[in-house]
Design a protein that fits this description.
Blueprint (H helix, E strand, L loop, with lengths): L1 E3 L2 E3 L5 E7 L14 H14 L3 E5 L12 H15 L6 E5 L3 H10 L3 E4 L8 H8 L3 E4 L16 H19 L6 E4 L11 H9 L12 E2 L18 H14 L4 E4 L2 H16 L12
Parallel strand pairs: 3-4, 3-10, 4-5, 5-6, 6-7, 7-8, 9-10
Antiparallel strand pairs: 1-2
Helix pairs in contact: 1-2, 2-3, 3-4, 7-8
Length: 287
């Protein structure tokens, strides 16, 4: 059981993290939940659909997105956390890289930090230590000092190396290893992966277990799905669900999704099949 503030997350079974973007410009649902009441209503719909975690983000990470001033991000995120935390029995996560937003959201009731920059922004590490809640570390190339994706080498080796370094840095600064989850960061643009890279991460996702941490994965509605062949470009739900099942089979403890109800139903079916007792074949004898 992972302690997330006042809530607990059972890592012995796959968990569904529902995406709640309180932004005007996120790639899939930007503008739909930018007002507090809209966002809170969507959060409750995801809870009713079976989400284990509600991940609230106030800054878009889509390619070409404009930076969001910290005060504006606070005004987007914190009121939603404040409205949900007193009544919601699910883990509330804050999707942010800003130390000010981390502190304010956790003070308001969030029990997890999901950082695409893996606590590289100035002050983020210190804020995460002070907040004392679990942190998701993602591999990406969204740091202002990055000139772009590194060249050379296999994408999975680069991810493993990067996450290993970030993991060690967090432990050294005082974040318990038991409070850290890892995310390979599927996607192009600022996440730095080509379609071939993303496919390779899907294929080799299990390699991440060598780092010894719980794994989170988010492929929901990602544009790289359109490069996987077939009708992927016009069937984002089908391909998102297929990838979620593949990732859980490869050992992902948390899948981050837009389509909560459909993902919960798919995972329940998968678990039902896995738990079904084996049927002993009947042997017929000839008389």
């Amino acid at each position: 059981m992972l302690e997330c503030g006042k809530r607990f997350l059972n890592l012995n079974r796959p968990s569904v993290m529902g995406i709640l973007n309180v932004t005007p410009d996120s790639f899939s649902d930007g503008g739909l939940y930018r007002h507090r009441d809209q966002a809170v209503a969507q959060a409750w719909r995801m809870v009713e659909a079976g989400a284990d975690i509600i991940d609230i983000g106030g800054e878009s990470t889509r390619p070409g997105a404009s930076p969001v001033p910290v005060q504006e991000e606070l005004e987007r995120v914190v009121p939603v956390v404040e409205a949900l935390a007193p009544q919601c029995d699910r883990v509330i996560s804050v999707d942010t890289s800003a130390p000010e937003v981390m502190r304010a959201a956790v003070a308001a009731g969030a029990g997890m930090i999901n950082d695409v920059r893996a606590l590289r922004r100035p002050g983020a590490m210190e804020a995460a230590v002070q907040c004392a809640v679990p942190v998701v570390l993602m591999h990406s190339h969204v740091d202002p000092t990055d000139s772009g994706p590194p060249s050379g080498g296999c994408i999975m080796e680069r991810i493993l190396s990067y996450l290993s370094v970030r993991l060690a840095a967090c432990v050294e600064q005082g974040i318990p290893r038991s409070s850290l989850l890892l995310d390979p960061g599927f996607g192009g643009g600022m996440f730095g992966k080509s379609p071939a890279d993303n496919l390779d991460i899907l294929r080799r996702f299990g390699d991440l277990h060598q780092l010894g941490q719980p794994l989170l994965a988010g492929v929901s509605r990602k544009s790289f799905l359109s490069h996987l062949g077939g009708r992927a470009a016009t069937a984002p739900l089908a391909t998102s669900l297929a990838c979620a099942l593949l990732l859980v089979q490869a050992g992902a403890q948390v899948v981050r999704v837009h389509d909560v109800q459909e993902t919960v139903d798919a995972l329940r079916l998968q678990q039902t099949v896995a738990d079904a007792p084996a049927v002993t074949p009947v042997t017929r004898s000839d008389s």
